[in-house]
Amino acid sequence: MKSFIELVEKKIKNNLQIDKIEIIDNTYKHLKHKSHNKGKLHLKIAIKSNFLKTLSKIETHKKIMNILDEELKSKIHSLEIKIN
Fold first, then answer.
1. Do the Cβ atoms of 7 and 59 come closer than 8 Å?
2. For 64, which of 34, 48, 53, 79 is 20 to 30 Å away at the CA?
3. How high is the pLDDT of residue 32?
4. Is the pLDDT of residue 80 over 90?
5. How far apart are CA 82 and CA 84, in angstroms?
6. In angstroms, rounded to a whole number, what is the distance separating the alpha carbons of residues 32 and 57?
């Protein structure tokens, strides 16, 4: 999964003006949930970006969701986004 997380990081870095990004795989916290889909990840993304701070929370989330559109359909079950 490390290479997939690196892919997600690269896609975000290539499409947005960011200063720092941290991606945390929280899938292990959800393994026993009824709705857990094997092979799908629960990710938390923390981004430091002066550019994203100028946008509304909804606009920021839309931008990130659009960048990760294919990954959300295939590999990501849950995505938590925090902008600093």
1. no
2. 34
3. 59
4. yes
5. 7
6. 30
The neighbouring-strand residues paired with 52 are none
Cα distances from 25 to residues 16, 28, 51, 53, 75, in angstroms, run 21, 8, 25, 24, 12
Checking if the pLDDT of 38 tops 70, the result is no
3-class secondary structure, 67: helix
Other C-beta atoms closer than 10 Å to the C-beta of 62 total 12
Q: Is 5 exposed, middle or buried (0-12, 13-18, 19+ CB in 10 A)?
A: middle
Contact between 1 and 23 under an 8 Å Cβ cutoff? The reply is no
33 phi/psi in degrees, rounded to 5:
-70, 145
What's 2-83's CATH class? alpha beta
Which is nearest to 9 in space by CA: 74, 67, 80? 67
**Tokens 């100028």 sit on residue:** 54
